[in-house]
Structure formats: structure tokens, C-alpha cells
Amino acid sequence: MRLFRFQPFFAIILRHGAKLTIFCFPKELKPHQRHVRNRRWIIALTGGLLLLSGCNSLPDSGPTESRINSSQRNPKKNAVGYSIIPITPQLISSLQSEAPPLFSSLDSADPHPMRTSTNDTIGPGDVIQVAVYEVGTALFGSSSSAMSAASSSSGNGLLGAAQPSPIPLLGVDGNGNVQVPFVGQINVAGMTASQAAQAIQSRLKQKSAAPQVMVRIATDIANSVMVYGGVRRPSRIPLTPNREHILDVIALAGGQEHASQTQNQVQNQMDEDYMVRLTRNGRVTEVPLKVVEDDPSQNIVMQPGDRVQLTYEPRTFTSFGASEHVNQIQFPTPILTMTDAISLIGGPSDARADPNAVYLFRFEHTDVLQRMGISVDTSAPTAPVVYQIDMMNPSNYFLAQKFIMRDRDLIYVANAASNKFYKFFSLISTVIAPGIAAAWIVR
């Protein structure tokens, strides 16, 4: 900042880089007026110098493009190891070819691929009902003499109307054993109801005349799945020999919860916002409900012991920097592109933004980054990455229309490098404006 005197004006020239700003004021003042004016300008110049020295400490909404790039190359500042990747047609193709984790991978990882569950076997925790029909002297009858009398009245030595024995419900213990009266302990784990009936009947032939045994699974625990979370009726769903699929058990649990109506407004809940988490044999896979509905191969057959959790996770993205709105926004449509997201935040601010530097921060899958040739830690499922797009290039608007947003993405619009320069002059104007006004008044 320099002060020049020349007739008939005083001039103040402010310089910041290659830019100059000149303030000119009339010199024709009386001595006492000049004294007041000089004192005011000394104060203004001193304040301006102090402000210029502290220009870098002026408040700002975020880093500039150069600051982001330099921080990425500085290992001390880039502690998470993020990379900056420009959005190109090759990048769009690579992201579109990404294969998310699917439920079909659980079937391929089954150690016994040829084994299929028929969902009709008895297991620990089940409760079975055993009915024994006898003729002649009934082992399980309430009165042997009454049974004999009924047999004599039939004329042919057979019981006219056989009644099932009053055997109480039998529980299967943790070892798969069941205790049957007059028979003893029988291991029925892995047997079907008919196989268990044959095993009990073979034991009874030694003690009863021509017994007939029927077994029914009254409470099926072994052949069931747990369905919980965002369903109307969380419960244990018994599987049948019909072999229910994952959408079947969700429907049997009442289906997904619907938003309650509040003040005549219903919250927008889409199938894309529901996640289906399946736990099988110690492995957990999570897939959007919409994917299961659209892809029949992901509507896999349930196996005993599966656990299905339906969760409502509204997809959101966050915006920061020199945009018109700094906010967290929920996806309004099933598929949201980058152009949609930028329009939702009002686009780059004309007064503050650098349209050349629009960034998208994301934790990307490591296999995708490896295909791009980026060195990442393969032991981690995701790695941080920053995608950059130049919105001053018209062709990039077509790329942004194909770039699909994901849940938890962060859009940052970089600040223009001239922001602090303009802020500095705004502060200078605030300081010297009273002096200028006083000089004109004195004049």
C-alpha cells in the first residue's frame, strides 16, 4: 500500500498481487483540515497494513483448489491417504461396471453346495406331537378291560374305532433326543416326521399289537428364520418344504413398515432406502431391497438358521464450501446423479465459488480403486478418494449426468482464490469509509 501526492488530488494505491485499486481525494484543504485528514489517513493506512499482513487469517468456508491439491501431496496433512481423481468417461465406465456384494455370493460360498434343505426335519428345540393308534389291548389306553370289551363287541377281534393315545407334547432336547413313554429315549435329530414315526413304531411293536404311529412337528424351531427390524411383525418364520425365498419371509413378517402420517404429510420412503441384511453361517451381506426385488437371482432360498434384518436407512449426501446451501439432503428420487445433487444445493455461488474445482468425497471400494491403478490397502474394504470435476467445461455436464451419487457422499465446492482479496478490501472500505466521509464533510 502506497500514498502518493500530486496536484490536485491525493491518491492511495492498494496492491494485492497483480491487481491495483486507486482511491483519489482532493488536496485543496485548509491547514487544520489537512491535519485532521492526515491523522485519519495514518490510522487508515496503519489498519490497512495490519489487515494486509493478516489476510491469510481471514475467515473462509473451506480450502481453495490449490490448498486441496497441496494437502493431498503432503503426507503430514493427508493422514488418511486420499487420492484426487478427475471425473472422466473412463472413470464413469469403471464405476458402472462395479459389482456390489450380492446375496447370491452366499450360495456360492456354501461349503456343501449340493445339500439342499427340505425344511421338514426335526431338530433341537422342536416340539413334536406323537399319536399312537392301537388295536386289541391298548398299551396307551385308559382301560385295558374297556378296550377288550369293545374288541369283543366288534365280532372280528378288532377294535371297532381306534382312538389316538393321549400322549403329551414332547420336546426335543439339545442333543436331538426325545423321551417317549414305554419306548425310552430316541434320537430324532435330522429325521423327518414320517421317519420319526417309523422309529417309534418299530420300538412299540415289541410291546403293543399292530401299533400305528403318527408324528407331527407342533413347534418348528430348527426349520425357521428370524425376521426383524423394519417389518410390521418381527417374528420367527417357520420354513416349509415349499422352500420360501427372502421376499417371502419378509412378506410373512408383514412387509416393510410404512411411514406414519404426521400433519397430513407422509414421509417419502422408497424401497431403495431399505436395506436387507442377511446373516448366514457367520457371514453378513447387505443389499438394498430394491435390488432383491428387481433381480430374481438375489431373491435366494432361505435356509434354516438364517437371520434377516430389514432396516430403513434414508440415503443422504452433504454439501460444503462455496455453494448456495450447506446442508444434508435426503435423496428425493431412487437414482440421484451428480447434476441433480449440485442443483439441489443451488450450484456454485457466483460471488465465492471456483467452478473449476467441484469435489466429491467418498469412501470407495478398494477393488474399484485397484482397477484404476491406485495403490490402496487391500485389507480394508474401502478407501478414501476425492473425485474432481471442472464445471467450466461444458462436456463435463454430460459426465455429471452419468455419475451416480451414493449414500453419505460429500460434495465440496472450492472457494475462489480471490475470495480473501475481496474480503480484505471489504474490511479496508469499512475502516476508511468514515475518514472519507469526514474529509468530504470538512471540505
Automatic annotation (TrEMBL):
Gene Ontology MF term list: polysaccharide transmembrane transporter activity
InterPro entries in alphabetical order: Poly_export, Poly_export_N
Name of protein: Polysaccharide export protein
Organism the protein comes from: Komagataeibacter rhaeticus
PANTHER family: POLYSACCHARIDE EXPORT PROTEIN GFCE-RELATED
Coiled coil, from the record: none
UniProt keyword terms in alphabetical order: Signal
Origin superkingdom: Bacteria
